[in-house]
Amino acid sequence: MPAPNRGEVWIVHLRMVGKVRHCLVLSVPAGPLDRALATLVAHTTSVRGTDFEVAARSRLLAAGIFDAQNMLTVPHAKLVRKLGSVPPDELAKVEEADRRWLAL
């Protein structure tokens, strides 16, 4: 399986009640000596209107948001299929929401 790249949207098996979700990759590709892990932010259609939600405008996804409060790190083996990439400006908005959530 190819390594996921920053800004790509993947279908990911999260093992939460059998949930398979669309997720945006935030981490950089793992090197040959690194653990095969990817840090992701999940996409959801359950919009709550928090300050840490970023509207997803991609044709790859249903109407919804990327939730910076729902970041996770999973092994590459949980990534099922790559759907495509989000535009750089959308990735930047998600990264900014993550920084605010983490107070970096």
Describe the structure.
The protein is mainly β and 104 residues long. The chain is 14% helix and 41% strand. The protein has a 6-stranded antiparallel sheet.
Q: Main traits of this protein?
A:
mainly beta, 41% strand, 104 residues, SH3 type barrels, single chain
Task: Please specify the SSE layout and strand pairing.
Layout: E1 8-13, E2 20-25, E3 37-44, E4 53-56, E5 64-75, E6 79-85, H1 88-102
Antiparallel strand pairs: 1-2, 1-6, 2-3, 3-5, 4-5
Structural class: mainly beta
Biggest sheet details: 6 strands, antiparallel
Per CATH, the class reads Mainly Beta
Order the strands across the largest sheet as they lie in space: 4-5-3-2-1-6
What's the number of extended β-strand segments?
6
- Distance N to C terminus: 33 Å
Give a brief description.
With 104 residues, this protein is mostly beta strands. It has one helix at residues 88-102; strands at 8-13, 20-25, 37-44, 53-56, 64-75, 79-85.
